[in-house]
Design goal:
- This protein is an alpha+beta fold and 124 residues long.
- It has a single domain, classed as Nuclear Transport Factor 2, Chain: A.
- 23% of the residues lie in helices and 48% in strands.
- Strand 4 and strand 5 form a beta hairpin.
- It is globular.
- The relative contact order is 0.21.
- This is DUF4440 domain-containing protein.
Length: 124
């Protein structure tokens, strides 16, 4: 589970999201997402969305990770997240689910969904 958490957190980082090599390694070619907003993305549209992002002094906080094995090479990662701005204010609280598949020797994100939720206390 640790590698999946590390990779999930990596995908929250602006520098990783701007790296075509990192994205090609971490995101499956058949990727799909239903965002917190309800907007659906496919592989191409998520790549375009990440490429258009601007750097920020804020960050994505994530916590309460749980991993459920669906098959030996398919894992469901559940967690909660919030956006934290440069002043420390939290917003965009969401419950998240990611389906990771083992593609050869590399875990890749194949499906992701974010669902808005009530604010929660951020843990370390």
């Amino acid at each position: 589970m640790d590698i999946l958490i590390e990779q999930e957190i990596a995908l929250h980082q602006y520098e990783i999201r701007q790296s075509k090599a990192d994205i090609a390694q971490l995101i499956h070619g058949d990727f799909r997402e239903v965002g917190e907003s309800g907007i659906s993305y496919d592989h191409q549209s998520i790549i375009e969305m990440m490429a258009s992002e601007q750097p920020s002094n804020g960050f994505i906080h994530s916590q309460d990770y749980e991993c459920i094995q669906l098959e030996e090479s398919v894992q469901l990662l559940l967690y909660k997240s919030a956006s934290v701005d440069e002043l420390g204010k939290s917003s965009h609280f969401a419950k998240r689910s990611s389906v990771w598949v083992l593609n050869g020797t590399q875990w890749q994100l194949k499906y992701h969904q974010g669902t808005a939720c009530e604010p929660f206390e951020l843990s370390n």
